[in-house]
TrEMBL record:
This is CCHC-type domain-containing protein. The keyword S-adenosyl-L-methionine does not apply. Keywords: Metal-binding, Zinc, Zinc-finger. InterPro entries: Znf_CCHC, Znf_CCHC_sf. It comes from Myxozyma melibiosi. Residues 38-55 form the CCHC-type domain. Residues 1-27 have a biased composition (Basic and acidic residues). PROSITE patterns: ZF_CCHC (PS50158). It comes from the Eukaryota. Residues 1-37 are annotated as: Disordered. The keyword Cytoplasm does not apply.
């Protein structure tokens, strides 16, 4: 493989990867990604897990 062929292959791979990212970002896949985020077992909210859930702490102070 010549140096130019290597650069062309690299550029092609970079362009293909960028296209995949753009397709993912623009295809509404973000909404489906949101629905597949992990949720806390206790309160069913995203952003934390059952071990760090604040709902238990709130209930114990009442």
């Amino acid at each position: 493989m010549t140096g130019q062929e290597g650069r062309d292959l690299r550029d092609s791979l970079i362009a293909r990867a960028q296209s995949r990212v753009e397709l993912r970002e623009g295809s509404g896949e973000q909404e489906s990604a949101e629905s597949t985020r992990r949720r806390c077992r206790k309160c069913k909210r995203t952003g934390h897990n059952a071990r760090t859930c604040k709902e238990d702490a709130e209930m114990s102070t009442i």
